[in-house]
Structures are given as structure tokens and as C-alpha cells.
Amino acid sequence: MQEFFKRKGIILACLMAGMFIGGMGGDTYAAEVVDAQTLEENGISDAAGSDGVQTAVSHNVSCTVEKDGTVTYMAVLDNLLPAPDDGMLYLFELDPYEYELTSDTDVIKSMVFDSSQPVQCFDFPVNFRQEDTRLYSKFAIGIKNGGAVSMVTEPTYITNPEALAWNTLARQPRSKKSTQGEEFNNLYLDGTYGPVLASGFKTVQVLNTGDSAALTHPMSRTEAMAADPAKVEQPMFYMFNASDEEGVKALASFMEYYAANSLGGENWIIGNEVNTRRWNYMAWTDWDTYIREYTQAFRVMYNAIMSTNANARVYVCLDQIWDKNLTPDDEGYDQCMDGKDFLEKFNALIRQGGNIDWGVSQHPYTNPMGYAKFWDMSGCEDGAVYADQVRTGQIVTFQNLSVLTDFMQTPAMLGTDGNVRHIILSEIGLTNAQGSEVQAAAMCASYAAVKDNPLIDEMMYLLAYSDPGMDSSLDAFAQRIYDEMDGENSELHMEWAKSYIGISDWSEIIW
User: Fold this and answer.
1) pLDDT band, residue 115 (cuts 50/70/90)
2) Which of 214, 267, 380, 396 has the fewest beta carbons closer than 10 A?
3) In which region does residue 337 sit, left (phi positive, over 0), alpha (psi from -120 to 50) or beta (all else)?
4) In contact, 49 and 158? CB cutoff 8 Å
5) Tens digits of residue pLDDT in 389-407
6) What pLDDT score was predicted for residue 80?
7) DSSP annotation of 39
8) What is the distance in angstroms between the CA of the first residue and the CA of the last residue of the chain?
9) Are strands 106-112 and 15-16 parallel, antiparallel or unpaired?
10) Distance between alpha carbon 52 and the CA centroid of its chain, in Å?
């Protein structure tokens, strides 16, 4: 870092400021456009993902931590920035749920503002695993102007928590196919199930039962549920709480513990089908607020996991609904939003606070879930409607995974290294309602859809699920096909499935 600043001829003096600043406002100054070359020369990536063409300087920040716990915050500031009243820049520390400065906002450091320098830098300790840890905080530069203090950079988190991790073991090789209950299981954050994870499971889905007040978002608690019961189905699980100090500390503490005591845990899925309220209940509010609250919790849990296990992967989980474009007047609008829209909004919020390498966990069931003979919808009531939903990309199943993978290849959705983010299909069950052979052939088709796809890391089958809408349990024949469809006799089983379906190539029914 010192060599970097010597090359640029930048001399920055960082001074401690053990003080609070009163009379603070919440305004943020408009920022100047800086091109990509300027950013690259100063070692700062464009968090807004706009190729540096029309990017606000308030996003042009870098906040990273070293193994020794030293955090370095760098920012390119607008050269039209108003002159600070006192000639100083202040680095503020905000909680995940804070979005503007108040009289209580902590000042970590202050320094003399030198407008001739393109990069401003602050260094400070992260206080790792301490009561006053800054691992879960956001940081922003502010100035005094006109008697008030205003933020001049977007609040940004530490974006490389993995640098602090003691567990740096390489990930173990994984097959494309795995089974829920064997390599996958749920972790309930109320403490009733979790310590058992220490031995076997590589994929863990983190869920909130709502039994802990600290872990559960205030708008998810019992008193809030009665506010407008007509707007939501009976909740199954509840929104995580990163909306107050107690919630942030509880989430961080739980996830630090479980990540440290689940040495096999490599994949961590935060919530279940989070574009649907039933699985992540939060009393009625607009979708933007809902996504913001989830994103805050995701960031806290991501930093807790990655600061423990450097090679873990952390996923946001979606159901099948992809691009229905429901309006507030449509039935179901309150209950579920399009996965595509959710990812766009989630990604924008993540980038706003500093880009990290989240991944996508999706559930590519057949449409509808209770009908496995997807290649022939004549036996399904309203089959033409369901088939059209898949054909037009309103719904994502294993038939049309390209809808998801094409979207994830767009520039705005790429990971921090410029590559496609990790994608897993963490839950799929095939009903036996149309018979064992249909079920087995559909399983072969689903596996064919992912086995040679480099953008899909893994597909996880749910073999023992049963409710009035679907029974995915296997008989002896279907079990044998499932066990062997990725083994030595794989091609034999795949050819059988194609013959049974009546096709010569999978591309006839999978695209």
C-alpha cells in the first residue's frame, strides 16, 4: 500500500479524532463522473458496475481489510466538492441499518482535506472478534459545510472479510448431483438444530423459525402479523433481523459460531426462496424495503461466514417465479415478486455498499410441481398455460435454465472477478404422481440439463418430500435410475430416458 501511494506521489496524513460532531444532516452531495482509467490507476473498482462511463464518485470507494486486521478505506472525491468549513474530512462508522448521519454517528478518524490529491485514504483497526468489532459496519466520508455535516461517499462495508479467516482449506471436489439430507441440511437459527452440522453437511440452508426475538425482524413478530393478515399466507419462516443493534449482534454471533463449528460447510444459503414472503415473513411493506432488510441481514451473515471460512460460498435463494411482471393490482403481487427483479434490486444494493461474491441458489421444479411429464402437457389441467410460462421465461425450470444463466452473464450481474457468479440448484423434487417411469425419465432429463453446463455447479435432489401437492419419494425402479444416472451406466440410463420420452436429443425438450 505504501508503494502504491509513493508511485502516485500522494502524501496523506491520517489523524485520530476522538470526538462526536453535532448538528449533522443527512444530505449527500452530488458526485462527479470519473472515467474507468482514472479509477484503475488509483486501484479503485467501479462499484456501480457501469464500466466507468457515467459513474458517481460517491460509489468509487474501496474498503478492504488485511490479515492483521488493518482496514484501508480509499475514495476518489469530487473535485467540485465544497470546501469543508474546517478544512477536514471525517470518516464515519454506521450500522447496517443506518443510512444517514446523526448526532450519535461515530467518527473513527479525521484528516486535513487536500483537494490536489485524487485519492483520500484512512486506515483503522477492524477489532476482529471483539465487542466493538467493525466487521459489520459501513463507512463513509463526511464534511462540515454550512454548519452541517454531510456524507460525500456512499456508506461502504468491508468487502473482503475472507482475509481474516482462519479456515483457508481448499474446497473439496463436488459432483454435479447430490441429495438433500446427505450433503445438504437446514440450520435453524433458534438453536434447536445446528450443532449437529459440525460433522457432515457441505451445504447448509439458514432459516429463521421466529422463536428468537433478537434474530427475527420486528415487522415479522406476532404483533405485526395481525396488522394486515389478508395480505400474507401463514408464514413458514421469518425475515432475519439486521434492523437494530441487538439483531446485528445476534446474527453475527450465531453465524460466526456455526461457520466455525461446521468444518464441512462450504455452501451457505441465506433463507429459502426469499422472493416469496411466506418463507421469509415480514409484515406488509413495499418490496424495496423488504429487499433492503434482507440485504442488510445477508451482508452481516456473509461477513460472519467468510471471515471464518475463506473458501465458503454464500447464496441468495429463489423459487421458480422469474419474470411474470405482476402489478399491484394482480393477485399474488403482495406474496411473491419476480426472481429477476429481486436479483436486480438485491445486486444494486450490494454494489452500493461494496460488491461481494454472492451466488444464486434456485429451485428448478417442473411447472406445475405436481406434474412430472413436462414433455407432454396433455394430461395436465391448464397444461398449455403452464408450458407457455416456461417457454416465455415467466417461470424457470430445469427445461429453460438458460433464462437464468443468460441473465447471470450480463455485465451488471457478474462477480467481483468479472466472471459469472456461482449458481447451484439447491432443491428439486420430481413427483411420482404420473408413475415411476415418468418420474425416472424426468430425473434423467433434469440431470441432463445440468451435467455438462459449466455455469451450474451442482443440483440437489429432494427425494423424500410429500405434501398434498407433490410426492417425490422413489420406488425401487426410480431409485435405481437415480443412483446410477451419473455413474458407470449413465449413458445407458440417459438413452433409456430419451427413448421413453420419444426424443433423439435432449435439446428437443431442454433449452
Assistant:
1) confident
2) 214
3) beta
4) no
5) 999 999 999 999 999 999 9
6) 73
7) H
8) 48
9) antiparallel
10) 24
7's grid cell: 508511485
What are the cell numbers at 259?
Answer: 461457520
Q: Is the model more confident about 94 or about 191?
A: 94
pLDDT tens column, 20-29: 233 333 333 3
Q: How far apart are CA 422 and CA 32, in angstroms?
A: 34
Distance (Å, rounded) from C-alpha 431 to C-alpha 244? 43
Q: How far apart are CA 462 and CA 450, in angstroms?
A: 16
Cell of 8: 502516485
Are the CB atoms for 142 and 90 separated by under 8 Å? yes
pTM, two decimal places: 0.88
Quote the pLDDT of residue 43.
42
* Secondary structure (3-state) at 40: helix
**DSSP E strands: which ranges in 332-489?**
358-362, 423-428, 458-461, 466-467, 470-471
- The C-alpha cell at 164 is 481474516
Q: What is the distance between the alpha carbons of residues 127 and 130, in angstroms, rounded to a whole number?
A: 6
Lowest mean pLDDT across 14-23, 123-132, 317-326, 464-473: 14-23
- Going from the C-alpha of 244 to that of each of 95, 100, 214, 215, 348, the distances in angstroms are 8, 15, 9, 10, 22
Please check the confidence at residue 253 and state whether its pLDDT lies above 50: yes
Q: Which domains does the chain carry? A: 2-158 (no CATH), 173-508 (3.20.20)
Question: What pLDDT, on a 0 to 100 scale, did the predictor assign at position 27?
Answer: 36
C-alpha cell at 479: 431409485
Residue found under cell 456501480: 48
Alpha carbon 246 to its chain centroid, in Å, reads 22
Mean pLDDT score of the chain, rounded to an integer? Answer: 86
CA–CA distance from 14 to each of 108, 156, 392 (Å)?
11, 19, 56
DSSP E strand boundaries for 32-83 = 61-65, 70-75
316 neighbors 291 (Cβ within 8 angstroms): no
Who's near 424: CB < 8 A, 6+ residues apart?
203, 267, 315, 359, 360, 361, 362, 456, 457, 458, 459, 460
pLDDT value of position 45 = 42
DSSP 74-130: EEPPPTTPPPPTTSEEEEEEE-TT--S--TTPEEEEEEE--TT-S-EEEEEE--TTS
311-331 as b/e: b if 16+ CB within 10 A: ebbbbbbbbbbbbbebeeeee
Confidence of residue 117 (pLDDT cuts 50, 70, 90): confident
pLDDT above 50 for 53: no
Is the CB of residue 426 less than 8 Å from the CB of residue 361? Answer: yes
Residue 84, number of CB atoms within 10 A of its CB: 19
C-alpha cell at 508: 428437443
Burial zone of 417 (CB within 10 Å; 0-12 exposed, 13-18 middle, 19+ buried): exposed
Helix (H) or strand (E) holding 87: none
